[in-house]
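Quick start: what a row looks like.
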Amino acid sequence: MTPGGPFKFRGVSTPYIGSLNTPDVVKYKIPIPFAFVPPNPKYNPREHNKKKITRPIELISAGNFKIEKNCQKQIQNYNKCVRNNKVDAVDVCAYYLNYLNINCKK
């Protein structure tokens, strides 16, 4: 065996510059389109400010949807969800709103 044999690139094309060839990558011929970059010691994810977009969310009325029992029940559930989760209602209540938009639109 040649020194460093399993870590050398044995592909048809030239490897990506900076790619890390581990034995698994070589054995199973896993394509790695990304260069290996060591972690940045100065980066702290807790200091990274994420912009939170707050969208106003409102209660919905039954007049915009079909008059079916399951649709009316989903409207009630959605409105309860919005009342109980005022901070992140967009994310928490998305299930109900998606159901209404897909199955209950007039």
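That is the whole record. The mean pLDDT is 75. The two ends are 71 Å apart (CA to CA).
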